Amino acid sequence: MKSAVETLNPTRVRLSIEVPFEELKDSLDAAYKKINQQVTVKGFRKGKIPARVIDQRFGRGAVLEEAVNDALPKFYTEAVNEGELNVLGQPEVDITELKDGELLAFTAEVDVRPEIEIPDYSGIEVTVDALEVTDEEVEKAVEQLRERFASTNPVERAAADGDVVTIDLQAKVDGEVLEDGVADGVSYTIGSGELLDGIDEAVTGLEAGGEATFTSQLKGGSAEGKDAEVTVKVTAVAARELPELDDDFAQMASEFDTLEELKADSRKRLETTKQYDQATQAQERVLEELLKLAEVPIPEKLLADEVQTRKHNLEHHQLGQMGLDLEKYLEIQGKTLEEFENETSEQAIKGIKTQFILDELVNKEKLNVNQEELTEHLMRRAASSGMSPDQFAQAVVEGGQVPMLVGEVARGKALAVVVEAAKVVDTNGEVVDLEDDEDTAEATETAEAATEDKADDKAEEKNEA
Known about the structure:
cell division; alpha+beta; 50% helix; five-stranded antiparallel β-sheet
């Protein structure tokens, strides 16, 4: 076999391949054997029809077609390996010459990963939010905990903001009561905003037994999005009572003996959360700067496929779970279809650039992924997918997605290398030290968010099937 590679552009090549006919012998034998099992000829046992009879009865062309279809993938792969090409997607194959007994010639156009020169990233400098926890934030956290331990006591007075009311609801559209528009004994905290728009104003000032009617746009159900006439009746009013903020509360709500110890723990938890946010912010901004430094040609077909995949995942996974279609989603977002497609294309380009650059860094820095790192990543992805680790691992293995998971971890390690080399300062001008055991895991999340890999989606699809 002879092959030649022609570079059409930085992301696409054409392979020209010539195969001497004798190298098709195995495929021709397989073609005759396959046809033998599919047809019957009077006077011959099934599977024992001579080749000359098959040629006479069904035509030599049918045999050649079967043999060529069998042989093409093998010779294409040999040519790719010979040319040391990093191909993307499936090739477009064109048979240019087929002479029986002499020669098979064909071309294959395919996208390839572009050659990328990794820029000097040691000069990257980014600014992140300062790690500051205010007294007000601590007080708010403690107050939220206090809210969880609130008690309610029935009162004989008009309902006020913050009260818990028990209500009966009835919704009408065009004067007809909806089948799914009736609910009795609903518990609702006034001011929480958890039910319909306008309900707070309607029930405020009502005592038990009082009712009011208001108009509101339905947020779900059979008449979602339509304006409904809603009648609400208050059947009970209860006042919420918050526990005193003292040492007794600390002992009741936590493992601490004093309120001051509880506040100190709340401050520590807030600092930990902000440290994580700060590290994520640093990684995102360092990645943005890295992308600006590198020139990365984008394969057109790969981009089109990526855009289509992102749209499919949005429509069939995310929006489907929320009971929305694309049209309704765009209406809520206040975007036109053109704006959405432009944004999706921009995100896809960023994802492809991120993957290409970080993969090149993995090769350049000779980064490897060990079993412990892969297991930790798998556990985290399983948790985010809502599947058990065993279910997720089985689905990933059966779906052939293990290399994808390995790639995600490797790219995270590559990004961590760039972040470590960068200068990160906070808004106070202080240098931020991001050296931490969790850096790689956080960097992996950041790289995933940019590339939006599909391992979890495919694992979920496999599990559902």
